[in-house]
Amino acid sequence: MEVRGLHELVHDASLRYGSSLAVMFYSSTGASSSLTYEELISSANRLTTLLRENVVLSEHTIGLYCQSDMNLPVWILGILQLPAAYVPLNPDSPPLLTLRIMERCDLTFCVIQSDLFQRFQSDFSHHLSIALCATWSVQRLILVRIKKESSSLQSNSEALQTTKSAETDQGTTLQPDMSLTQKGHQRELLAYVLHTSGTTGNPKIVKVPHKCIVPNILHLRSLFQMAKDDVVFLASPLTFDPSVVEIFLALSSGACLLIVPSTMKKTPNRLAQVLFTHYKTTVLQATPTLLRRFGRNILREKVLCADSSLRVLALGGEVCPSPSLLRNWRQEGNKTQIYNLYGTTEVSCWACYHRIPDSLLCTADRTHTSVPLGEPLLDTAVEVRDENGCRVTEGEGQVFIGGVDRVCLLDDELIITPGTMRSTGDWVKIKDSQMHYLGRRDRLIKRHGQRVNLDTVQQLVENLPMVESCVVGLHESRRLVAFVVPLSGHPSSSEDNRTVSSSAYMHGSKDFIYSNKAIVREVLQSLSKLLASHSIPDTILLVPFLPLTSHGKVDIGKLMKMYERHRDVPVNPSDWKDMDTVKEKLQTLWKEALGLSEDVEITADTQFLLSGGDSLQAVRLYEDISNATGMTSTGLLEAILEGCFTDVLHHVTKVMCSLEQDAVVPPPAKRKHEGTVVPLKRQAINPASTMAKKRTPGSAVPSEKRILETVVVRRAGQIMEIMGCSQSISDMVEPKVIREETLTSHSDLHFHPGQVVRDQEVQQMGASVDSQALDLRVLWSSDTGRCVDASAVLLVECEKHLTSGQTRVTAFIGSHSHRLQALHLTSGEIKWERILGDRLESSATVTKCGTLVVVGCYDKQVYFLHVDSGKTWWTFETGDAVKSSPAVDPETGLVMLGSHDGHIYALEPQVKQCAWKHHCGGGAVFSSPCIHSSLRHLYTATLGGKLLCLSPGSGALLWTHSSGSPFFSSPSCSASCVSIGSVNGNIYGFSHAGEMLWQFFTNGPVFSSPSTFAFSQRVVCGSHDGCVYCLSCTDGALLWRFATTGKVFSSPFVFDGSPWGFKTLVAFSSTDGAVWVLDGENGTLKASLSLPGELFSSPVVWGHTLVVGCRNDYVYAIELTKRRESPRGSMVG
């Protein structure tokens, strides 16, 4: 039986359901529009007529350059009815990638969404001749005819093509696409043309006949029991072939296709509201990643709740989540049918399906760790073959997909052989006749969390005009190296450079390697336009030829040895101690890392990221400097990322000078009894006299009854009281009376994880956990979608009458996903969520009035949002990214914060204006300001190494201290001093008049911010050497030190330990994912917990709950409880 076209399936449905809704579009403004089936077909017919009047009849592929819109199905049907295949072009893709697709599809005509025409011209006018053919206002389309500019093709063709077989000798004319210009009946069968992503191999052009995709639609329509009452969400972009299934699954069934703007798909809360509250979506096909963006709470409460409108959830495009995870996403009583779909674009679209049994989703059985790929779909053949090509019925092998008609044309294939089976590169294990996905086994690596195919990178390098040949390899599983033979006669090459002796080659001649910087720079610049940052080689090594093995293959082993000799050139520290020499060499490495020409000026204030660099390029520069100098420095990467060129220069010079000294002066002998101890001297403090002392700024809340309505709790134990109602808060978070301890100790001892040092005493972790030890237990977690480096701020709201009132606590925290979440502390339920303009690293705060939450953003903005709804009250734009966390002046209500533009701002949210701003003298302001209320001092610090004291009322400078090292740490106030940490490893104490009182040297950079004890003159701070230090505020003497298992970036939180039987407790995290709670008196370990991700967020404590963000994308609420004794006296959780 002859298979009908996709558009014919829609025509059939329109005859039965003409007056029914076919398309619904929900705009960003909340407005909705719709089309019935009659209107859809009428509009599509009109577009087909217009196309026939303007398009050459021999054209059978037409580009479609558009975004999500109500008319999207009209545009697709109008092209299909021509008849022609549509080629979706994504306006948000890199222009060179889109240009490559247009060339390889040999496009002549393109229809462009009207409001995108200017962008199309801007992106492609330098590469294409664009002739305007027609403008159709009703259809909101512009038809253009495109032709490649010969001059552009001459310079860019090789870089844009992944194969040279379609080029002539001159590279100016492409071979006609024979697969699209054969017999008329075959041309009419093409429905659409896509391209693979290239993440798992070379990008391929995939031409899909109607007879290949229609069986998918028919079978899935039957499986899902589609009806006219169904609502299908268009979740996929047009460039992803599941979009075809979504569109025609709906429109061939008389169902309604729901379309929303792509920006709305990035706001899970709002998207869930639209899909399941407004439009009662019944069928959702999505990738597991898209589904995960909703977060567990929304999944359980809206998507997969007991009374969910969702009948069918089809997951595909990625590995299916485990049954246990799916079970956690479903609310008890949910009836949604869940399917696992598997397929490849090369055999568009799906090949297999498996319905997950309801019984498996309702049981607690954890023996099923994966979901099978399932059974073949209609007209699809699936085989598993081993490495020898033999069919596998039990065990491991590679999946092959095909069928008589289920075959697509790839790249320049001219004919389709019936029954062709495509290799997928996916390996599975067959067990009990079911296929379970294992992964891929080719030249695919995972780098910086992203997949990279080495052959794809190698082929792109080889296709560059300045490259003769190339081999790409991975050195020691981490360094991506491209060995390049430059093209003879290229303008950037010289005869001298190309004449290299075999001896020089065998010894990795440095002259040859570095004499062609122009070629290296040109290669990197070209690749930056074609590849994502994680795919760009770390090193481009120029070689005169590629050595071969006896079998005639490239000897990658010899090449890697050459790279090692080049990398391991002996370093003389004296060559790097002269500032001018270091400056010149660093400027060279800096330019090479960014692919800049030699005449580009690198000034003292030049910042790496602002010069076009990204975090991966920063890592490359870090490794290049480390290899060139022979040094290893934990602070170098931070200086590159956050500092300016001067910061990096000072850092390298200082470290190299110390290396030279180490080479002359022998290191001190290791202590024989390292870690042995002498008991501490302790000075008792009279509790009564301590309670009578005046509170110091930044200290925790005193424990007597007071008038209290709202409390704001922030990192490092910062607490602000707002308004008033009677409330006893003795058991909240305040550090109560503790005893002073004095000692003399050296800071150059070596410590092991868990050790506590008090003068000469060391206690091992575990040994210090006494009969009053505590437990940490995760209460809930909230998925934010990306890493969480910010710290939470807690808003504690109290009722006015204690007898009937309740305390409500909301945690506000931001994420690199651009989200700011408002979470109920007790349940973890999302009160509201906002997607802001860029990443959020700044920790939020709450204004003096208690009604606005304030947060800084990478998009330069400071956002003031209503605490109860998240709605925007005001935004203020600075001159650069805002990573500084705001502080509130308790007297005036001004909000103070710094910006990477080098200023500190004082903002008045009530009148929506900036009261004043002050330039801090050089360097971005990363750290957060601190206000001493009674002295009326505002302290802030910069990455330029300056600590400033300003008047909070006017911004006038009172005093400043300059240091040679950046301050990432935020200042902290006590009665006697202001303390701050530096990346040079010091913790400083300054008087409030600006005099340096003391400094304490740790063995690593200090990014942690100090936290002061409320009533005793102590400060506690972490370091990248893995330790947390408790120091005297008066003279900086070490009181105790605790060694963790990782670096300490977070700021400690000091709080009252009386509910658990202690005076004071200190909570903090280390970057290896550990959360620690110590006795504030002596630094002994009381509890610890390991989370599944790095921790740069600082914990915040209220009551018995600790909140911290994690780099695994989650925010965690952790309960701190006292362990109970077992009958035998041992401790149990």
From TrEMBL:
Domain Carrier: 580-656
One Pfam short name: AMP-binding
Transmembrane segments: none
Coiled coil region boundaries: none
First and last residue of the signal peptide: none
GO biological process, one term: amino acid activation for nonribosomal peptide biosynthetic process
Superkingdom field: Eukaryota
Keyword entries, A-Z: Lipid metabolism
Region entry Disordered, spans: 157-177
SMART domains to which the protein is assigned, alphabetical: PQQ
Membrane in keyword set: no
PANTHER family: BETA-ALANINE-ACTIVATING ENZYME (PTHR44394)
Entry's family note: Belongs to the ATP-dependent AMP-binding enzyme family.
Protein name: Beta-alanine-activating enzyme
Naturally occurring in which organism (per UniProt): Chanos chanos (Milkfish)
